[in-house]
Amino acid sequence: MSRPIRPVLIASAALAAVAIPQAGTIAQSGTGVVQSISAKDKQQGAEAHPQLVAEFGGAMTGMQAQYVESVGKKIAVQSGLSNAQSDFTVTLLNSPVNNAFAIPGGYVYTTRQLVALMNNEAELAAVLGHEVGHVAARHAAKRQSAATRNAVIGVLGSVLSGVLLKNSQVGQVLQQGFMQGSQLLTLKYSRGQETEADNLGIAYLNKAGYDPRAMSTVLGSLAAQNTLDARLMGSTDKVPEWASTHPDPASRVRTALTRAGSTAKGVTNRDLFLSRIAGLTYGDDPKQGIVDGHKFTHPDLKLTFTAPNGFYLVNGTRAVAITGQAGKAQFTTGAYAGDMDAYVRAAFASLTESGQQQITPGAISRTTVNGIPAAYALARVASGGSQVDVVVFAYEWAKDSAFHFITIVPAGNTALFDGMFQSMRRITAAEATAVKPRKLVVDTVKKGDTVQSLAKRMAYTDAQEDRFRVLNGLAAGATVTVGQKVKLVTY
Q1: pLDDT of 302-330, one tens digit each?
Q2: Pick from 434, 436, 437, 431: nearest CA to 303
Q3: How far is CA 404 from the centre of its chain?
Q4: How far apart are CA 346 and CA 325, in angstroms?
Q5: What is the spatial distance between Cα 285 and Cα 437, in angstroms, rounded to a whole number?
Q6: In which region does residue 387 sit, left (phi positive, over 0), alpha (psi from -120 to 50) or beta (all else)?
Q7: Rounded to the nearest 5 degrees, what angle is found at the Cα of 210, between the Cα atoms of 205 and 215?
Q8: How many CA atoms lie within 13 A of 132 on its CB side?
Q9: Long-range CB contacts (within 8 A, 24+) of 106-111
Q10: First and final C-alpha spacing in the chain
Q11: Kind and range of the H or E element at 123?
């Protein structure tokens, strides 16, 4: 959660493509329908680009970003959209979620987190080729009729209508409210369109000389990461919320391998890739705040809070989602002009769109939490055949700034988040300085090293071996060999 926060949640859908209206000249090729980059495409892409970059934590610079750009341009020209690499803009985003997408106009994006999950250059090319394939096949335009407006689908918006609210009416209302104010839409593609984008990506890999089996292996890593994330979140669903806009990658792994051919050949540039991505920030950037277990700390804003046991925190550039089986919450901010009552009412109002019935809170109460002036209110809302309680708990951080939680629980269970509300406090300068990011390092397996011994070096207190295996694409039971390069996450 970065300093200039608006009430917009993080967008996060692995291997997703963002839709803006497409235009251009359609031409038939031997591999299918492709689209050139028209002047209108370039204009629309240029207009959307700054919003996308801001929504995903900003663009990274330096050697790592330059490397991703070079691979992205190499694979993008295979699409037939343009024969000039200079017509493509490839951006490495400073985001801790697994995401990649492309939009018309030659704009291609991937997050540093997704790059860290990959294990060779061919996999990077496969992901970016898949996204360019969506644009080349005009998938966004074909599904544009399903979209009524442009908005980024946020994590909390997805989960609010999920396990707790069972896609009930209130869940849909709250989801729409949490989406309000964002600018771009991540569309859900059909299984057929995902397969077509996979196939186009595989064709681009072949044309560029990469091992086309990389599409299958990177989808396998995504599937494994999805399963691990879901387990760490305490969910029985194998697909976490940020993969909800795509079919489960696991269902596409075998199809992609069959398409590529199990004996296919091509370059992977594994060691080169690992050397280029070493040093990437892994997980949260301290400038956006750090999640450590149940604790969130923001060194720049000088604040910290702790979620209840059994809850999973997902940090974004503009908000933090707090997810559990018993309730859901969001931590964010809004415009503040010194009136806490007005601020709380505005937070409730943000949950509904124009023309919908407003969620009206009861009396607004005042209190103090660890020396911080606070205000809170509750609204009981019908949710299908039952009711839920929505609480806004706000803190006056300064005369011109405030933060707040929005929580949703089954009626009568608001005490679930009382400890979290009371845990909010300011941190000292020393505490802020002590917040360090996790980094991706590449090491060479030495004699005596095992998966278990290497995993103990992972900068986590839970699931160290599982995290190490997923990060390195190692199946259960797979071992490491002397001289092999592996990825680790350390402080």
Answers
A1: 999 999 998 888 887 778 889 888 888 99
A2: 431
A3: 22
A4: 27
A5: 6
A6: beta
A7: 55
A8: 34
A9: 106/37, 106/41, 106/42, 106/45, 106/76, 106/81, 106/82, 107/45, 107/48, 107/49, 107/52, 108/72, 108/76, 108/132, 109/52, 109/56, 110/68, 110/72, 111/56
A10: 20
A11: helix 121-136
Q: List the beta bridge partners of residue 373.
A: 368
Q: How many helices (H) and strands (E) does the chain have?
A: 16, 21
Tokens for 181, please give them: 């104010």
Phi and psi torsions of 363, nearest 5°? -60, 140
Please tell me the distance from the alpha carbon of residue 8 to that of residue 29, in angstroms, as a whole number. Answer: 41
Name the token pair of 242. Answer: 């940020």
Order of strands, sheet of 401-410, starting from the edge strand that comes earlier in the sequence: 312-315, 320-324, 327-333, 401-410, 386-398, 372-383, 365-369
How many residues are present in the chain? 491
The structure tokens listed for 369 are: 């939490």
pLDDT digits (tens, 9 = 90+) for 373-398: 999 999 998 876 788 999 999 999 99
CA diameter of the chain:
68
Amino acid at 420: M
The larger pLDDT score, comparing residue 38 to residue 473, is at 473
Any idea which residue has 């911080």 for tokens? 372
Across the beta sheet with 107-111, the strand order is: 89-93, 107-111, 100-103
User: Contact 458/467 with Cβ under 8 angstroms?
Assistant: yes
- The whole-angstrom separation of Cα 434 and Cα 218 is 35
403 by Cβ neighbours in 10 Å (0-12 / 13-18 / 19+) ranks as buried
The whole-number pLDDT of residue 142 equals 60
Per-residue model confidence as pLDDT tens digits over 342-358: 999 999 988 875 556 67
Could you tell me if 59 and 92 are in contact, meaning their C-beta atoms sit under 8 angstroms apart? yes
What are the CA-CA distances from residue 96 to residues 62, 289, 491 (Å)? 18, 11, 16
- Where in 127-265 does DSSP place strands (E)? 185-186
Cα–Cα distance list, 33 to 80, 139, 178, 205, 226 (Å): 10, 11, 37, 17, 32
Output the CA torsion sign for 449, 454, 455, 461.
Answer: positive
- Using alpha carbons, select from 207, 270, 410, 434 the residue that is nearest to residue 328: 410
Burial class (CB in 10 A: 0-12, 13-18, 19+), 146: exposed
Report the candidate in 121, 115, 163, 127 with the shortest Cα–Cα distance to residue 16: 127
pLDDT of residue 368 exceeding 70: yes
CB 352 within 8 A of CB 340: no
Distance CA 135, CA 108 (A): 10
- Residue identified by tokens 């091992």 is 211
pTM passes above 0.85: no
Per DSSP bridges, beta strands 89-93 and 107-111 are parallel
